[in-house]
Amino acid sequence: MDPHSRARGSRANDVFLGDLAIALHVLAPTDQSRVADIVRLLGFTLDLEAAGGAQQTERDEMIPDFSESAPESPWRKEFVAPSAELDARREEGPGGPPIPLRALPDRSDVRDYRKRLQGWRSLPRERPRASIEAPPSLDLDLFRQRLARSLISLSLAVRTDDGEPAVEALVDALSFQRPIPRRLPRRPAPTLRFGVQVVLDRREAMRPFFSDLNSLIATVRAVVGHERTEVVAFDLRPDLLLRGPMQRTPYHPPPRGTPVLLVSDLSIGCPPWSGVLPDPGMWRRFAEELRASGCPLLVLVPYPPRRWPGGLHTHMKLLHWDRGVGVGAVRRLVGIGHDYDR
Fold first, then answer.
1. What share of the chain is helix, strand, coil (3-state, %, to 5)?
2. How many of the other CB atoms lie within 10 Å of CB of 188?
């Protein structure tokens, strides 16, 4: 049989070589002609001339042996290959003596065989290969990944008066015959062109959030720009910046109009034995210094508002650094953008 034989058609219920192999195993033909009849009935082609009178051993190599893996058919027990006597009776024609029917197998045996055969066909033909792809990364950041950029953009925007022209103000001036100013009134618009200074709290109490700090810095640089993002850190007080091992320098505010993002727990998570006591006055002095320099301040706190030191919300804008924070909370706190003294 031609090994490149294929079924005649392309429908979903076509017969494949596996079905031909099962049919040959179940019917067990004894000669080459019956094999050819089965092959043609299933829609395959049999090239006897190309086979060149192949021997029985060659036929056995082409027909897979399913005796060890396939379930035993109950039909094999009742039906055997036609004998010479049966062939002689067929030659007598329609008027010959009737051919006695053999006893059919029990229906329960046939159903059980079909179930086992169906389960055997569903077995995988090859062992699945182990996946070498890395597992999907988990979204464990304190800001959800799909909202992180939007939250950072809204949190660090500064309000300016260089938006679209305020048409209502112009119409009002013309209606009341007031002089039109040389500089046209414009709508307020948010901008990130001033950049940002990020002040990180690197004290021991913030150690559980160090990985989140790194992710936050990467998001800020992606939104504001790497060249417009300045990152500084402290490990004792915010007015002493950490420049190296045991090297600290006084803090200096950035240029006027640059927003400052302070990421700290405000000494909430410091244990009593650490020697660091909550000092709201330290944070108030830091906020007053930035206000005098014309730099708006926003503080990200990884603890809920019920644990914040009292009275700080009047000196600085505090935002809960948590996955439950949405765009609405940032908009209510910052508005269209931070305002500063020009």
1. 40, 15, 50
2. 14
Q: What is the mean pLDDT of residues 233-252?
A: 86
Tens-digit pLDDT profile for residues 248-280: 899 999 999 999 999 998 888 877 666 666 678
Lookup result for tokens 């940032």: 330
Q: In Å, how far are 38, 65, 240 from 61, measured between CA atoms?
A: 18, 9, 85
Residue 209 carries which DSSP code?
G
Task: Return the CATH fold of 145-157+192-334.
Answer: Rossmann fold (3.40.50)
* Opening angle at CA 217, ends 271 and 227, nearest 5: 140
Cβ-contact 329, 293 below 8 angstroms: no
Per-domain residue ranges of the chain:
17-121, 145-157+192-334, 161-188
What is the spatial distance between Cα 49 and Cα 338, in angstroms, rounded to a whole number? 90
CA dist 258 → 102, 193, 195, 231, 336 (Å)? 98, 9, 6, 13, 16
| Cβ atoms 71, 113 nearer than 8 A | yes
